[in-house]
Amino acid sequence: MATKNLVLSQLTGKKTYTEIVFKQVWGKVETYQAAHPQQKIFMMAFGDTTQPLPPTVVRALVDAANRLGDPKTYTGYEDITGNSELRQAICANYYREKLGVELESAEVFISDGAQSATVNIQELFAPDNIVAIQNPAYPSFVEGTSLAGRFLVNLCCQEENNFVPKPPEQKVDLIYLCFPNNPTGTVATLEQLKAFVDYARNNQAVIIFDAVYNAFMTTPNIPRSIYEIEGAKECAIEIGSFSKMANFTGLRVGWCVIPNVLTINDTVPGELNHLWRTRNAIKFWGTTNVAQQGAIAVLSAAGQKECQEQVNYYLQNARLLRNGLEAKGLKCFGAIDSPFVWIETPQDLSSWEFFDKLLYSTGIVGVPGCVFGSGGEGYLRLSALGQRDEINAAVKILVDSLPEPEQWQC
Description:
Layout: H1 6-10, H2 17-35, E1 42-43, H3 55-68, H4 84-99, E2 108-111, H5 114-120, E3 131-135, H6 139-147, E4 152-156, E5 174-178, H7 190-203, E6 206-210, E7 236-241, E8 254-257, H8 271-283, H9 289-298, H10 301-327, E9 332-334, E10 340-344, H11 351-362, E11 364-365, E12 367-368, E13 379-383, H12 388-401
Parallel strand pairs: 1-11, 3-4, 3-5, 5-6, 6-7
Antiparallel strand pairs: 2-8, 7-8, 9-10, 10-13, 12-13
Helix pairs in contact: 3-9, 4-9, 5-6, 10-12
């Protein structure tokens, strides 16, 4: 008799991030819109991009599609680890040229975005491994750990330390770190990341480093890659993505790096890399070849210039949004190295109370901080990945309609 996956079943019913956003957040918006049909709604809840693909990327995609339409140039399956030219470009044009980090192309695996890679990477490790995750955190880290049935340790992120946690006090096996951070928008210093690398090396733990937003970093002397920390290749896997830096949220191309020198208990150099290759051969037959051609174009000189212009566009959105909120006396984080603005709720309002009042006062829709974990209670996240005219209109309403902090009441 077939029986259901009880762990997966327990995650349903308004408990996952997707269900909360689409049922609770969107449900409140629909109810409000029904009662106030003339009110303009500003959707700033989703981390989805809005700008078009860069021209260099579009030309590469069209050319790739045309080649697939010609029997003389048609190609089928790629290498399951990813297009070799793309992996080489990630090593040369991204890591070496931009970050000063040396990698071998065999250490890079192309994925269908960061989401699947950050969750599925746990399949490399034994079921009894203990996982430490920032709190607040991107919910998929937590949900993926729960789905795997692993024990979870919270790494508390507090305002006093710029939402950067300290290494675990107890022994853990896997550590999720995300910088620039989603949802808080903050970054970690070299010294703070070195403390985690030292912990991982001393405890034979592995850091899973989400660097999806590093293209947005503007603060000087802050590491963009965990591999800028000495010894990190021996203890860290890094996840990257084209989604935000190149508007690939619909094309779905990302990567993960598993260095050959990364070892854990009972492994030899290169073994984890080989195990991930084996796992992909069983469960994943590669990212679409057309999309990978677009990613290659992203890493060209012209593509990088065009993508940086769009990253700057989103960052300006975020700064405009933060300035408008701060003009009303609200305390904000992010918007400097990230397209997210993390707002401290006024007058001790809960995250959901502030969500309601922001929606009712301005039509602006964010995500309550508590959705990202207990450490997010008392905050709200806004995404600035929208259109500039929408951001300007929202800021005007903020300035004109939002009460002063001392006027907010529960």
